[in-house]
UniProtKB/TrEMBL annotation:
Signal peptide: none
Lineage: Bacteria, Pseudomonadati, Planctomycetota, Planctomycetia, Planctomycetales
Domain DUF58 stretches: 48-261
Organism: Maioricimonas rarisocia
Pfam families: DUF58
Domain of life per record: Bacteria
Name of this protein: DUF58 domain-containing protein
Amino acid sequence: MTASSSPITSEMLARLSGLELRARVLVEGYLAGLHRSPHEGFSVEFAEHREYVPGDDLRYLDWKVFGKRDRYYLKQFEAETTFTCHLLVDLSESMAFRSSDAALSKADYAKCLAAAIASVVLRQQDAVGLTIFDSGIRNELPVSGKRSQLQEVIRRLEDSEPSGESAIGDVLHDIARRLGRRSVVIVISDLFDEPDHIAAGLQHLRFQRHDLSVLQVIDPAEAEFPFDEPARFLGLEDQQEEFIEPRLIREAYLEEFTAARRRIESACHAIQGDYVLASTDDPADRVLSRFISHRDGGERR
């Protein structure tokens, strides 16, 4: 899978009016870079084998089985025709952050990615639902594959602004108890919560046999901490101010930030989930391509 030659930057998206137009441009940029069908990006779990018959797609031959049995078998998937996708979008207060050099806030960037993913899912005639959350579930759109579903996803995202504290782990547990049939679950969040709590929530979803992907959205300043002069820093959610000498805490901050990110990434890999890190200054179409290629690249069991 290759990306389009002209990346769609956050600056370009910021100049577009409305989430619908941003999502359309993003999806068109992503599709322009494809050399194969987007249907391949969202297969749900590997289920079983069946014996090869002439005319079958050779890409799904299992060569390991051939080596053991000297016969050709194909991998079959539990949802290779249709599947259900649940988009979980974090719009807690911390998602409102936008550093001085960033074109989009984390929330706006996350909304673009969520709307684009919904569009790709619906294009392949599958079904998508949306849950917007902070410390609890704020807005739920039931799963549907109707043509009008994308407009409803976009409307609800546009009508929701970041507010409230985050409690991602609790929300994931709640959603795990509420979801019915086995689904693809995509979490889009800055993951600003206790990593162990998030990991436990992800494990709960996986225990229910859902297929998990996590898209962590961060601002470049959060990853780089490019501050030099003493200043008052405002809490992202508790709104408390604190006077800080950045040079004294940069090393400790970066160590803690990296450790938390790696803890979540490790938790995703441990449950055969996908993890993609996206900075708001990354070209969004290339993040979308990277995300779908992650989903396309692994065998889920």
